[in-house]
Write a structure and sequence with these properties.
Rossmann fold, alpha/beta, Single alpha-helices involved in coiled-coils or other helix-helix interfaces, 46% helix, homodimer, 16 helices
Chain lengths: 430, 430
């Protein structure tokens, strides 16, 4: 972790440069797998599952009995924890549902928006060493609240052709409609094109390795939408003398243990704090099971000391972190000035872990500076806001002449005519 | 306009197939222009403006004096019409602003979303035969309401190096911060990379020809977001015996006059109505200035007769039209069942033109079936919903153990440790 003391503003972009994350190089390779899935169907899915997951799967669809077995295998304390987290996530995402507001913009002209769930959504949960059941909750709970009719989950099988019980437990808890033992590019291809009993969906959500990201990017040029662009996970911490160095070290390490390309940035007005945090990192790192991963991430990470809080805020807004922890005396005031961030954690007792798992906010957030233009997942990600309008005869009499003038000025006579015919008919009616 | 009487459901996909709209073929060509703009700066912009717009421009930025001249050139009746339309668009989009709701998901755990405007947005308004000032209103008014700090408008100059006064009038009315005489791929490149006095933006909005669309698609793989994927404009009309054939013909023609690749679909349970509408189309078409364009669009268009209203609804939901007019006796009831559409127009006196110009709804809508996963432009398009959370010592005591169990089960020990350290510190405090 390199430290910069009061670096000039002109150097910030360079200091905060993220490692290049481009999936373009993988595109040809991923494209050829996708093409084969599109034409080869289930057989192609089997072939690549053997190749990449090392297991031969006859039926990708998880059966009722497997879910029942899983329920009995999950520890009661974990079940209870998942249920509490699910409840909080549900409460927070339900609060995002907007009601229909009919607006009369001109007498007789009424307009409104109606939120309608995307019909079919595909959720991807990566495999790997540990079961990411928390991601099941974060993707499926808002989909269910949004009213998505079909919620398809794909997640890779292990070498025994099984899915971790905790994932199946979470999936049945939140109302997933189909679960398939399918990972990587195969999963994205199956949900994008529809393969046999795996339906084509309208939008695909969820994290994944760079092959999954490349596949999502490719299929999004066809007719399936994706949640957001990809990048490694990251956290920035803003801290002052009131921060607890051990807490900050633990927050930086939680991010660093995600992967060797994770980003960790500490921004503070206290040089003293940097020293203490580094000491604490060393202590805590020593006993971490994922020490070697965290070390790699820390090697690319920065501590920036800026005397002025205003500069600290500017630097954070330029960086646009996925996660931002503000451990400062006046954190509420500082938070007001944050305009580019995915999710913000306030004060000494609000670690990122809380939002990763259980506080209620979504943990699928814009990385790689995309917080400048994207929100994290929320109810909007799973709905369309369809606009409606209803104009009465009185309304068209009021507004029609305005439309006629504008259409004529844009030289769109048929647009004008659609108004004129109606106005004439209403005149005749008198 | 071909008519299908009660076609089998299995044939719908084929009947409703849209003309292939792919910009992939243009990508190499557009990429090379973009690359040159990235390295060549203002000189490259000048070169391509000469080449594509046939005019040599020294300073792309529109000057105060040009705006003042434009204001004096626009007809008072058009000014008034633009102001009324702007007022309605403002009223409707202001109603979409959501307030901050703090949610306590667990005692001591408070989460909320805050809407923050995207800092810098780039708006593109195409040139062509007529001045599309309505698009200026539709893009800039929500950007302003959202609180975007910099709103950059690019639109191509004419052969005299000027921008149509109506566009400048609309731009100054709605608070655009910079206007540049720049069209096509040059405009998209300038706003995506930032060229000299034209700033790099975070998100680019607006329609354009296939070169503009290809450029938007390419730059969206970098770090600039775009509003939505592209496709030709389209309208579907659902009608029964209560519909007015002349009105419907005028609505279909308003869509058809947009361009030769526009899509027009009539779905009805009355064969009789199809005959009458076709007669009316012939009559109205004869005197249209854009007759030849509309004829081409109509050649690819369809009338589908389905006896059952339920089938009409299913067909529309499968097609997912950009615009949908429901001219049926029980239109409110039918509208309730529409799940895939961009914007819906209800009853005999609600023509698409109203939403195109002045009722208040946005006219930038998802085409090409993208209504299955995208909304039309609305306030959400110009903001990010940043999540915030604040957890008190009591809150972390309540929720901490849940997070510890989940983090341990996902084998992320540093995540767990961030909680454990805080819980220990609170225990020590007693």
């Amino acid at each position: 972790m390199k430290t910069y003391i009061n670096p000039a503003k002109s150097t910030w972009t360079e200091i905060l440069r993220r490692p290049v994350f481009s999936v373009i190089e993988l595109e040809n390779q991923v494209q050829s797998v996708l093409t084969e899935i599109k034409s080869g169907g289930i057989e192609a899915l089997r072939k690549y599952t053997e190749q990449f997951d090392g297991v031969s799967i006859l039926n990708f669809a998880v059966q009722e009995q497997e879910i029942e077995d899983a329920i009995s295998l999950v520890d009661d304390s974990l079940k209870k924890a998942i249920e509490i987290a699910a409840g909080n996530i549900r409460t927070f995402h339900e609060s995002q549902v907007s009601s229909v507001k009919k607006i009369e913009t001109t007498p007789g002209v009424v307009c409104w928006q109606k939120s309608v769930g995307i019909e079919k959504v595909g959720l991807y949960v990566p495999g790997g060493s540990a079961p990411l059941f928390s991601t099941v909750l974060m993707l499926a709970i808002p989909a269910k609240i949004a009213g998505c009719k079909e919620i398809i989950l794909c997640t890779p099988p292990n070498k025994e052709g099984k899915i971790h019980p905790a994932i199946l437990y979470a999936a049945q808890l939140v109302g997933i409609t189909q679960i398939h033992k399918l990972g990587g590019v195969q999963a994205i291809g199956a949900m994008a094109y529809g393969v046999d009993y795996i339906p084509k969906v309208n939008k695909i959500f969820g994290p994944g390795n760079q092959y999954v990201m490349a596949a999502k990017q490719i299929i999004s040029r066809g007719d399936v939408a994706i949640d957001m662009p990809a990048g490694p996970s990251e956290v920035a911490v803003m801290a002052d003398h009131t921060a607890n160095p051990a807490f900050i070290a633990s927050d930086l390490l939680s991010q660093a243990e995600h992967g060797p390309d994770s980003q960790v940035v500490l921004v503070t007005n206290s040089s003293d704090l940097v020293v203490k945090v580094k000491d604490e990192i060393e202590k805590q790192l020593a006993i971490l099971p994922r020490k070697s991963i965290a070390e790699k991430a820390l090697a690319n990470s920065h501590a920036v000391v800026l005397d002025q809080v205003a500069d600290m805020i500017d630097l954070i807004n330029e960086y646009a972190p996925e996660h931002l922890i503000i451990a400062m005396e006046n954190y509420a005031e500082v938070a007001e000035k944050i305009i580019n961030a995915g999710s913000v954690f306030l004060g000494n007792y609000t670690p990122e872990s809380a939002g990763d798992y259980a506080s209620g906010t979504n943990h699928t957030l814009p990385t790689n500076g995309w917080a400048r233009s994207f929100s994290g997942l929320n109810i909007d990600s799973f709905i369309r806001k369809i606009t409606f309008q209803e104009i009465s005869p009185e309304g068209i009499k009021n507004l029609g002449p305005v439309i006629e003038i504008m259409a004529a000025a844009e030289e769109l006579e048929a647009h004008k005519n659609a108004i004129s015919l109606r106005l004439e008919e209403l005149k005749d009616r008198k």
